[in-house]
Amino acid sequence: MLPLHATTWDAPQARDDQVILIHGTMTWGLAAFAAQRPLAGHRRILVVDRRGFGASPDTEQSDYDVDADDILGLMDRPSHLVGHSYGGVVALLAALRRPELVRSLALIEPSALAVAADHPVVAAALENNRRYVAASRSLSAEEYLVAAYGPDEHVIPEPREFAVRAAETALRERPCWEADVPVDALRPHDYPKLVLAGTWETAQSDYRSSTGEALIVTASIVARRIGARLHRVPGADHAPHQQRPDEVNRLLLQLWDEADTVTSAGNGGGGQLTPTSGRSTDD
Predict the structure, then answer these.
(1) CATH of region 5-281, choose from 2.30.30.240, 3.40.50.150, 3.40.50.1820, 3.40.30.10
(2) Low-confidence ranges of the chain (pLDDT < 70)
(3) Mapping DSSP to helix (H, G, I), strand (E, B) and coil, where does residue 257 land?
């Protein structure tokens, strides 16, 4: 039996495919993807809790390799993978292991910094991340929760016990930003691919400089190397699907519809999305 908890949002019409939503750290499936609930009117959607998060069982250490295998266990049919942050790394690994089951791939602010480690902005961020993780290991889950969300209790997602549990798991997780992901192997696969990133102009300057700039660079490099379309979402930083859900949901539907066209035609179309708004670039 699979160790994961997944909430199923069933579409009204029967289809042969499904969408799997994979959350990042410090959260869980329903908290991360609540704004994507309307998409269930179009596709069957599985909202996953990774091990140690939400209603899934505890784990000694959250691990992107184990997570990827867990996701493969849910792929009993052609699947559209959508991963945010840590979940973006998990989605990449799952797509690499079973490409024949992937109908489309969407990465939202993927934290695959090791892929772009040669870039000086990303190299500096990796160094900062390592120092931060080393310093945070002495914190309790409650202290880490406050460090992540700030002292305002109202911004911590409910139920609080899930938020505390997410902090406990995050403190011992294997850092996804050091994952060695052979992303170039994804480029030949002809299913459509999309990478979404915020523009970060509304974020606090220290947050943008310490985190946002590296994620922007990483999104661009990952998109280029896997053969994806990169779309920058205005007014968003690390959570475009929560901050600008109308735009992100529209782009996801467009991606999935394109996958239907590719499947029907039996030919390639990876990365050929034409965003309807916002900023777009291929490099």
Answers:
(1) 3.40.50.1820
(2) 1-2, 265-283
(3) helix
